[in-house]
Design goal:
single chain; alpha/beta; 8-stranded parallel β-sheet; 42% helix; globular
Length: 269
Amino acid sequence: MTRSLSLAHLTAIDLPPPDLIQAAAEAGFDAVGLRLIRVTDISPGYPLMEDPGLMRATTAALRDTGLRVHDIEFVKIDPHTDVAALDRFLDAGATLGAREVITAPYDPDLSRLTDTLAALTEHANARGLGTVLEFFPWTVVPTLDAALGIAAAAGPTVGVLPDSLHFDRSDSDLSTLSRLTPDRLRFAHLCDAPVHPPYTTDDLLHAGRAERLPPGDGGIDLKAYLAALPPDLPLALEVPMTRLTAIEGPRAVIRHVMTATRRFLASAA
């Protein structure tokens, strides 16, 4: 069965949305994820909700290529998150036809984190958007089980987002992954990386944000990871490769990621 493949913006974060969409279409992707909110001081975000010209260029690129926006990202839920202030971000996602909003857990008060996620989900659902909580081993929600607990408490439509890198580097279990229901598991991130535990926080952050590998080029047991996922589950390729991008450019990296992914999926089948 053919899976839908989306290109996560972090794979080529220096490309503005119209250029990312065009490059993804040329490489054969079905969709893209767009980073509308800046995550770190050294990586860009593209606030289409504040730039009508860029929004027009982005929607034109979607129309011209036939690609769709799968997800928008990402909301770092912290102690100061104001859900109402995110309405314009959610409106932009609805305009783009996005399906999901990616959220990240950065509030140490898990009860407040859950309440904020529930409120954000209500605002997102009203616009036809779903929400998913991604877990990271350096955060207060470090595992799939922890993310699933928060999502379940936040509401029946809140999903969880496994990323093969973070799954491999956290205390997460394939049996839990394989038991997730469609209301909780709606897509997954896919990449590869060297496997050399133990990992420092700096190791985790560097791999997560700057240096990963395409599927099949590293040491993660991706065949087991895929086997635990539904065969038709959409996959988003999040493969930042900072060194290679500096040498060959982001479009070459996008093509490389797609070629390697097709090769790996064929071998996994």
